[in-house]
Amino acid sequence: MTKKYLLISWLILFPFYGSGSGSGQNDSSHIRVDVVLVQLNVAVTDGKGNYISGLGPEDFSVIEDKIPEKIATFEEGNEPPRNLIDLRLPTGQSQAHHIGKTLAPNGSMPAADPAKAPALWSAGTNVFILFDTSNYMYRGFVFAQDSIADFVRSLEGVSKIAFYSYSRDLSRAAALTSDRSQVLRGVRNTVAGDDAALYNCLLLTVKDAAQLKGKKAIVVFSNGPDNASLVPPEDVAELAQSTGTIIYMISTQQAEAEPVSTAVFERMSKATGGRAYFAKDWRDEKRAFTSIRDDLAHLYTLSYYPTPNPNRGWRTITVKLVGKDLQKYHVRTRDGYRLLQQPQLAVQALSSSESNSASQ
């Protein structure tokens, strides 16, 4: 089962490899190659935790595997993203030129075609809420529903919201939508149930979020440890890192009393650029949701086309602020991503795994 989830991760991360569509599929003399656009969501705070606004792309330095990168797009908060690279430049002057191109047999690159460049994402964040409805939630169920409902109503500048719940299985109670009332109905219709398979269900939620452009975040409300998953939390964290999905964890004292879960929640959220909260009561729950809402509203979103790099595995990302006046501030973002090496094998294995699951 763990191998199955890893294969799912590979497929999600790298849908851009392989043959092109249309006539290109029937022409064996050309190979279509799409280069990944790496997106980073960056929070900048001072020593007291206050957000620093008003920074520009020139204030950030992005390094991947010790290689300096050029920022391609930049966005602050809910402002529209800005394109910082001219896609019409001659071949060889920008990594952006590899987008949607076909390579001749000798590997040469044709002139860039701006019409085939990916469109910039719209401002705002797509938020997935994942609610623990396992048997751990019996005591605080109604209070948790109230906190989540208030959070949904308070989200401004968010493009769309999805509401999922989990116990042993994942329930997509409200698909990604801009209709807040539909999401609220999903919240109110949840009922407490079975054992908790948090990491299984969180992996599937990351898979859904991975298909989206722009900022995307998952807000998890958990009341206890995972006692039913087959996939390890490390795989979930790596998939979220590699797809640019932020994970925020809100948990209660019951989960905090379990040291393993506490450590996992903190590591997972930190690895993706998010934060973990441990609430003592419903008031703390509301404060945690408010903090997440503020965090989403103050994120800088940077993206870049990676400079050619022989590393086909895990790539480390470092984001720093440029200039002495900015060194006193703190930067929070994900610390890397992983490349896929054999996508076709992953596709075949995934299809086989899904067929086996359906027949059981």
Task: Tell me what you see in this structure.
The chain has two domains: 156 residues, no CATH class; 173 residues, Rossmann fold, CATH 3.40.50.410. α2 runs antiparallel to α3, α2 runs parallel beside α8 and α5 runs parallel beside α7. The radius of gyration is 21 Å and the shape is globular. It has a six-stranded mixed sheet with strand order 10-9-8-11-12-13, with helices on both faces. Strands 6-5-14-2-16 form a five-stranded antiparallel sheet, with no helix packed on it. It has 360 residues and is an alpha+beta fold. It has nine helices and 17 strands. The chain starts with a helix and ends with a helix.
Key phrases:
single chain, 360 residues, alpha+beta, Rossmann fold, 2 domains, six-stranded mixed beta sheet, five-stranded antiparallel beta sheet, 9 helices, globular, disordered N terminus, disordered C terminus
Give me a quick take on this structure:
This protein has two domains: 2-77 and 82-118 and 304-346, no CATH class; 125-297, von Willebrand factor, type A domain (Rossmann fold), CATH 3.40.50.410.
The number of helices is 9
CATH class of the largest domain: Alpha Beta
Structural category: alpha+beta
The largest pleated sheet is described as:
6 strands, mixed
Stretches with pLDDT under 50, minimum 5 residues: 1-35, 87-118, 341-360
Helix fraction, binned, reads 25-40%
Distance N terminus to C terminus?
Answer: 13 Å
* CATH architecture designation of the largest domain: 3-Layer(aba) Sandwich
Number of domains: 2
Which range does the strand content fall in? 25-35%
| Strand line-up in the sheet with most strands | 10-9-8-11-12-13
Number of strands: 17
Shape call = globular
Q: Quick one: CATH superfamily of the largest domain?
A: von Willebrand factor, type A domain
Radius of gyration equals: 21 Å
